[in-house]
C-alpha cells in the first residue's frame, strides 16, 4: 500500500492572515529599500523619479504580484511545482529562479547582512574613526584590485556570516508558522519602530531640510533619459521580490479563502511607502552632515554600499548626542530588513525541494544553510566586494528580468491569463478585470524586453564596472549559465506525486 496520494495534504499553512502579509512584506522590504531607493531617487531627478517609479509599480509591480500570489494560491506549490502543473516543459524556469536566487543573490546578500552585523558592533565605540572610507575598504574589507586576486578570507566577516546563517537556519528550521510567521511578526513592527525613530531623530537635526529638498526636488528633465526608466523598473522588480519564486511559495501556504488582490496591493504599497519614508531618514542625516562639514550635499551622497558603510558612519560620528545608539539602531534595522528577506528565499527553495523530492523539510533547511554559508565564503574574501558587484549585476539585471519575461509568457500565453483571472475572481474578495490580463500578457513582457535590450546594449558598449571581460564572462554570465544547467538537470527528474494533484480546481 502506498501513502503517496496523501503527500499533498501535508502542506503547511499560515496561522493568521496578517502573518502571511507580514512575511511577504518582510521579504519585500530589504536592504534595497533603505539604501538603493533613496540613492536612485536622488540620482534620477529627485521627486520626479517618483513618476516612473509609481508607473512601474502600477504597471509591472502590482500586476505581477497578483500573478505570483494567484499562481501559488491556485497551484498550492512552490515555483517549480506551480510551473510544472502548467507544463512540465517549463518546470526548469521555476528551478532556475529559485536556484540562482538561493545560490547567487542570497549568498552575497547574507555577506552584506554580515557586514551590517559587524558595523552594529563597531557602533559601540565608533571604530571607523575619522576616515570611514579608508576604514571600510582598507581595514575592514582589505579590498584587492581585481576579482581573481582573491587573497584571504576576512575573519571578522566570516564570523558574522556564520551568525547570519545560524539565524537564517534557526528561523526557517522552525517552520512556516513557528519560524517565518513568528519571526516576521516580531521583525516587521520592530523595523518600523526603529526606522520611525531614525527618521524622527534625523528630521530634528540642523540641515535636515536641506537634505530632504535635495532628495525630493523634482527635475522633470531627467524623465527623458531612458536610464531613469530602466532604474525604476528594475528597482520595482527587485524590491517586490518578483521573479524570485518567493511570493509563489508564500502564497501556496494560504488557505482556500484568500484576499489575493487586496493583499497584493497592500504588500506592494507598504513596501514602496517604506522606501519613501526611509529616504527621509537617509537624506535628513546627509543634510546634517553637509551642514556640519560645510560641504555641498552632492559631495556627501553615496551609492548603496558607500552610503551605508561610508557616508552613514561618518554622519554618525558627527552626531552631537547618543551617536553610538544611532549607529546601533541604523545597523540593527539593516540586519532585520536583510534577514527577513534572506529567510524568504530559503523557504521558497526548501518548498521546491520538498514538493518534488519529499525529503524531510528540516533536513533540507539544514543542508541548505550549510551550503549557503560555504557558498558565501568567496564573498567574504578580500576580493569579495568585486565578486558581489559582478554577480549582483548579472543576476538582477539579467536573471530576474529574463525569468520574468518567461514567467509572463508561460502564464499569459501558454496557461492563459483568463484561467488565473477566473480563479482570482472566484476566491478573492476584490476582483480583477481585463486590464490585468492585458498587463501581464503584453505590457509587462514588453516593458521587460525593453529593459533587457537596453541593459544588453549598454553592456556591449562598455564592460560593466570597468572589470575585465574575462571576469565578467566567467563570474557573471557563467553564474547564470551554470544555475540554468543545474535547473534543467533537477527538472528532468521524475515527480513522485504529479504536481497538478495539489492544485485548487
Ligand atoms: N526585496 C529585497 C530588497 O529590496 C531583496 C530581496 C527579496 C532578497 N527577496 C530576497 C534578497 C531574497 C535576497 C534573498 O532588498
Structural summary, described in words:
By secondary structure, the chain is an all-alpha fold. The chain has one domain (17-501): Up-down Bundle (Amino acid/polyamine transporter I). Helices cover 73% and strands 0% of the residues. It is built from 18 helices and no strands. Helix 1 (17-28) packs across helix 12, helix 8 runs antiparallel to helix 14 and helix 9 (208-216) packs across helix 12. Residues 1-5 have low confidence and may be disordered. The chain binds tryptophan. The site of tryptophan has 19 residues, from helix 1, helix 2, helix 5, helix 10 and helix 14.
Give a short overview:
The protein is an all-alpha fold. It has helices at 17-28, 31-43, 50-75, 79-86, 91-122, 132-140, 155-173, 176-203, 208-216, 226-239, 246-251, 260-293, 304-318, 323-357, 361-376, 384-427, 434-461, 469-491. The chain has one domain: Up-down Bundle (Amino acid/polyamine transporter I), CATH 1.20.1740.
Amino acid at each position: 500500500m502506498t501513502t503517496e496520494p496523501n503527500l499533498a495534504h501535508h502542506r503547511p499553512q499560515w496561522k493568521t492572515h496578517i502573518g502571511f502579509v507580514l512575511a511577504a512584506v518582510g521579504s519585500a522590504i530589504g536592504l534595497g529599500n533603505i539604501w538603493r531607493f533613496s540613492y536612485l531617487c536622488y540620482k534620477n531627478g529627485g521627486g520626479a523619479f517618483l513618476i516612473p517609479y509609481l508607473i512601474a509599480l502600477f504597471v509591472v509591480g502590482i500586476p505581477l504580484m497578483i500573478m505570483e500570489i494567484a499562481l501559488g494560491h491556485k497551484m498550492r506549490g512552490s515555483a517549480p511545482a506551480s510551473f510544472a502543473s502548467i507544463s512540465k516543459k517549463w518546470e526548469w524556469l521555476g528551478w532556475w529562479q529559485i536556484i540562482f536566487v538561493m545560490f547567487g543573490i542570497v549568498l552575497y546578500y547574507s555577506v552584506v547582512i554580515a557586514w551590517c552585523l559587524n558595523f552594529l558592533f563597531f557602533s559601540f565605540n565608533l571604530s571607523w574613526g575619522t576616515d570611514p572610507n579608508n576604514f571600510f575598504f582598507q581595514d575592514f574589507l582589505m579590498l584587492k584590485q581585481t576579482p581573481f586576486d582573491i587573497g584571504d578570507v576576512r575573519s571578522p566577516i566570516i564570523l558574522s556570516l556564520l551568525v547570519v546563517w545560524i539565524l537564517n537556519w534557526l528561523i526557517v528550521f522552525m517552520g512556516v508558522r513557528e519560524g517565518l510567521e513568528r519571526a516576521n511578526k516580531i521583525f516587521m513592527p520592530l523595523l518600523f519602530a526603529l526606522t520611525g525613530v531614525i527618521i524622527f531623530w534625523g528630521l530634528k537635526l540642523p540641515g535636515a531640510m536641506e537634505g530632504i529638498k535635495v532628495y525630493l526636488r523634482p527635475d522633470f528633465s531627467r524623465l527623458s533619459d531612458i536610464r531613469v526608466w530602466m532604474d525604476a523598473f528594475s528597482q520595482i522588480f527587485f524590491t517586490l521580490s518578483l521573479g524570485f519564486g518567493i511570493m509563489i511559495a508564500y502564497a501556496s501556504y494560504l488557505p482556500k479563502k484568500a484576499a489575493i488582490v487586496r493583499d497584493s496591493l497592500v504588500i506592494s504599497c507598504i513596501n514602496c511607502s517604506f522606501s519613501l519614508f526611509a529616504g527621509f531618514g537617509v537624506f535628513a542625516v546627509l543634510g546634517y552632515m553637509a551642514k556640519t562639514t560645510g560641504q555641498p550635499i552632492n559631495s556627501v551622497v553615496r551609492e548603496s554600499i558607500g552610503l551605508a558603510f561610508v557616508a552613514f558612519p561618518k554622519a554618525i560620528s558627527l552626531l552631537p548626542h547618543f551617536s553610538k545608539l544611532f549607529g546601533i539602531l541604523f545597523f540593527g534595522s539593516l540586519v532585520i530588513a536583510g534577514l527577513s528577506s534572506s529567510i524568504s528565499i530559503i523557504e521558497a527553495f526548501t518548498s521546491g525541494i520538498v514538493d518534488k523530492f519529499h525529503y524531510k523539510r528540516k533536513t533540507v533547511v539544514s543542508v541548505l544553510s550549510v551550503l549557503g554559508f560555504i557558498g558565501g565564503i568567496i564573498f567574504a574574501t578580500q576580493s569579495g566586494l568585486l565578486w558581489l558587484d559582478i554577480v549582483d549585476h548579472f543576476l538582477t539585471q539579467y536573471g530576474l528580468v529574463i525569468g520574468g519575461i518567461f514567467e509572463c509568457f508561460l502564464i499569459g500565453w501558454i496557461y492563459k491569463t483568463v484561467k488565473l483571472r477566473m480563479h482570482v475572481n472566484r476566491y478573492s474578495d476584490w476582483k480583477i478585470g481585463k486590464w490585468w490580463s492585458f498587463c501581464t500578457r503584453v505590457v509587462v513582457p514588453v516593458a521587460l524586453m525593453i529593459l533587457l535590450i537596453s541593459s544588453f546594449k549598454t553592456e556591449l558598449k562598455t564592460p560593466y564596472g570597468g572589470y575585465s571581460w574575462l571576469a565578467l564572462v566567467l563570474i557573471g554570465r557563467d553564474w547564470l549559465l551554470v544555475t540554468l544547467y543545474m535547473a534543467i538537470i533537477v527538472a528532468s527528474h521524475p515527480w513522485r506525486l504529479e504536481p497538478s494533484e495539489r492544485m485548487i480546481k
